[in-house]
Amino acid sequence: MAFEPRQTSLGAGALAFVRKGLEAVESWLEREREQLGLWVPIALGSGIAAWFVLPHAMSWLAFCCAALAAACIGAMLPVGGRFQRMIVAGAILACIGCLLVWGKAALLGQPPLARATFVQMTGDVTAVRPVPAQAMVRVMLRPIDAPELPEMVRVNIADADVPAGLGEGARIRFRVRLMPPAPPSVPGGYDFAARAYFQGIGATGKALKPVEVLKPSTSGPPLRARLFAHILERIDGPAEGIAAALATGDQGAIPEADAEAMRRSGLAHLLSISGLHVTALIGAVIFLLMRVMALSQRVALGWPLMLIAAAGGALAGIGYTLLTGAEVPTVRSCVAALLVLGGLAMGRDAVTLRLVATGAMVVLLLWPEAVAGPSFQMSFAAVTALVALAEHPRFRAFAAARDEGAIRKFGRALAVMLATGIAVELVLMPIALFHFHKAGLLGAFANLIAIPLTTFVVMPLEALALLLDVVGLGWPAWWLTEQALNFLLLVAHGVAASPMASLLAPTMGAGLFGFAMLGLLWCLLWRSSVRWLGLVPAVIGVAITFAASPPDILVTGDGRHVVVRTARGMAILRDRAGDYVRDVLSESAGYDGELEAIAALPEARCSTDLCAVRMKDATGRNWRLLFTRSDVLIARRDFMRDCAAADIVISDRGLPGWCRPRWMKIDRRLLKRTGGLSITLKKGEVHTVLSPGDAHPWIARPRGGKVQLYRRSRPASLP
């Protein structure tokens, strides 16, 4: 009997278990059938994101093959099931997304300049953008008779050096030191090089005077530039930059202090032309058209008023999008508004998550590179959160209009605005942590004042002022606009001054960010109770980020700027570093205080050329760090002794082979391969900006050449 075959097969039991599992999934998907289409842009975007995360062509090809293999496996599932179609369609869309951005990068991107170079340059101006807040003009131009230079170059010209006749179509000549577009200075920093590649910018620089105009511009400035200059003439003080940004989307006139206050208070979204602005404009146009057409009895009774008003609003929205530069949030808002108008014209409710998904598909197909930027992620995440909250039955029942007193109605409206603000803040938290290393805490409360003020006071007043300027009577409206904007800035600075305005955290890894975002999307896109399972990865991702050990040492890609964590906070090597460098290093380290000078630390010994620091990591272990502070040649005997005594040596120049620290030598040669570094001493972790073998086309690969290590000799080292 012991050797007879089993009466029940183990394989049959496992197969029955799998079959029941598939039936349960199919039953759940049947209940969620209206939500399945919302995952189409997610699948396409995952393939695009994979292209940015994976390093080289073989890995991109492997991802496409793996996606197609998943589609083949999905095809083997029971035929006709929703789960089968989801797997097959999702895998194919992911493959298409990777190929889409790969193809655009290969065909339309602009390779960066190979290495920094100083040239006498002649070029044709294609665009001019004033940046009053930085006292300069930003010029885009095409070099002439310079095959060694990229096809498009961006150059900054100081206001004092701007020549007469500079404008679109002009030809200018000047001296300039051109640089490849800057990669992130430290791990997790802003990657301008990737953005510049898709914008067609191959090099950047600052023009040196004199700037000579060989052929002046024959055309006047574009409408956007004229409107920008007109607003700056009508409003004085800090409010002028905000007013210009609300109308044109150009934030170049906003002082950095005001821009930082808007960011810390959670009001920076007001400065980017997006759904709030487009909706307000289209709504105003529809309202005016309906009122004007209603004045005629014949028109009111015989014409399709809503269809005509919707068409007028659509034209206004398209024109406003083109006027403000057609940025991703604006395009998304315009597409969404057009779909809403189409639905209203047909008598349907078009404000649904399908509307948001359609807008996302349009943006991904036209600008697939946008998926890696914070603008796309934050705008679509915020709108998705708002629509998902509005579609929830309990929230819809609470927010529905009812017959009640004015006080209760106002309180209900206030509660609805606060709830939507908190929902948006929570959804945007992982995105803000990943890109900016900080998350807002008081933005929901600041927006209770700022959004109504901007929508119902500032923008109507500014539009009225522009209309009255046609007959020269706009000054009263401009004065009121200025006062309203001053109040808006007062709110922003007041909220930003609070220590609770934002919470900083160390750099969030790409894998952890994707894990958290998948959880949030799971919560937002499903309707059944299974949606709440998505809170687990979202909470875990954010919690791990806040609990992570911050880096002990940060080194910028050029090696000039170094910050170290001490018992008193963070300290910087060169205390004359600019505000931008300080902000980048502080945010990447998750530190919200002032950076003091390393030379002022009691545990540091510094001379003009070298700086030695003793520090302890989280385990209490002592570390000895050595930094160079100049390009002066130091006596070999002294420098060799200091190198041998140090655990880590960091320099912005190439160090000789006989400099052998006990653990790590970071010099110009190493930084060329790795980019900026972040080091956590407790775990011995070193994170780099550049990955080995990274073949993304925006990474400049310098050619070989001699590097001058030293300038002159000095015998002394440390005091």
State the gist of this model:
The protein is α+β, with helices and mostly antiparallel strands and 719 residues long.
If you had to describe this structure to a student in words, what would you say it looks like?
The strands form 5 sheets. The protein has a 6-stranded mixed beta sheet, covered by helices on one side. The chain has a 5-stranded mixed beta barrel with strand order 1-2-3-5-4. Residues 702-719 have low confidence and may be disordered. The protein has 719 residues and is an alpha+beta fold. It folds into 5 domains: 32-108, no CATH class; 117-221, Nucleic acid-binding proteins (OB fold (Dihydrolipoamide Acetyltransferase, E2P), Beta Barrel), CATH 2.40.50; 244-504, no CATH class; 510-547, no CATH class; 553-714, no CATH class. It has 23 helices and 20 strands. α2 (40-53) crosses α4 (82-108), α14 (374-391) runs antiparallel to α16 and α17 (443-468) packs antiparallel against α18.
**How are the strands of the biggest sheet laid out side by side?**
11-10-9-8-18-19
Overall mean pLDDT stands at: 85
Question: What's the number of extended β-strand segments?
Answer: 20
Measured distance between first and last alpha carbons? 91 Å
Count of the domains: 5
Radius of gyration: 29 Å
Q: Biggest sheet, in brief?
A: 6 strands, mixed
- The secondary structure category is alpha+beta
Number of helices: 23
Low-confidence stretches: 702-719
Assign an overall shape: globular
Binned, the helix content reads: 40-55%
What share of residues are in beta strands?
A: 5-15%
